[in-house]
Amino acid sequence: MNTPPSSLNASRRDVLVAGVMSAAAVAVPAATTAEASQRVTNRSSPSKGNRTVNMITSKDGTQIFYKDWGRGPVVTFSHGWPLNADAWDGQMHFLAQHGFRVIAHDRRGHGRSEQASSNNDMNGYADDLAAVIETLDLKKVTMVGHSTGGGEVVRYLARHGTKRVAKAVLIGAVPPLMLKTAANPEGIPLEVFDGLRTSVAKDRSQFYKEFAIPFFGVNREGAKVSQGTLDQFWLWSMQVGLKNAYDCIKAFSETDFTGDLEKIDVPTLLMHGEDDQIVPIHDSAKKSAKILKDVKTIYYPGAPHGLTVTHQDQVNEDLLAFLRS
Fold it and tell me: Which of the following is catalytic: 128, 305, 311, 318?
């Protein structure tokens, strides 16, 4: 039976509301192995004040933590809400073993970075990413972002240009716009995001445990997600400051990236799960694909938002192929 488009749109919104949707979060790969830890390269940042190893000072003075593994062509990773750089360990370990230098930072307020009280928005996130790239003098970078991190990458490219960038990869990313507006009637109602803010402020610990369910598609028949993966998601989520988590909801839900996407002039790969309950594919990747100039798409049947865990091997191989192309 053919379902009318309006019914499909309503259905997608219902799924998000039911799953206590919160656009954003990065894929949560398997825990870092001991071997991966040993491969970490402790590159000290250039001295400035009391900066410590693997910390960079952003332009507003916020301390940003980063991890830097391997040697070779550079790949940066931007995580999403409400996790940290460790969410990329499954991809970083794999690519470091295949001849790449991989770098991921904790977004301000997340993980080991400073819990800044201001600039918790896409411009601030993009400027922090720029500080990492410029301080480490990275060139010919392939930028990878998941969910909110995808928005961060897109805003960086529009705000700071592509002089240092070779390619971009957006995985389950939030662009072009999540919020329902007159110009984006298929989007998510503001009330849904207000509900997220209420849940985070009232009992974020329980909320993160519940949010992991639709994130990994655990509520789908046949889903195989370990308790360890769910526990890891909760642990990383609890490391983000309350104010930072709260402010980030507005950043990932209300930022319109349409104009940013139009400015991107490097080859871009869009990877998205077709059963993404957090950032529905029809309202994100499939719209972005129509805006980007040089784009390749890979859509994964039945895959959830956290596809870098549930489909880690496939995602890693596809990412490697794009890097080598």
Answer: 305
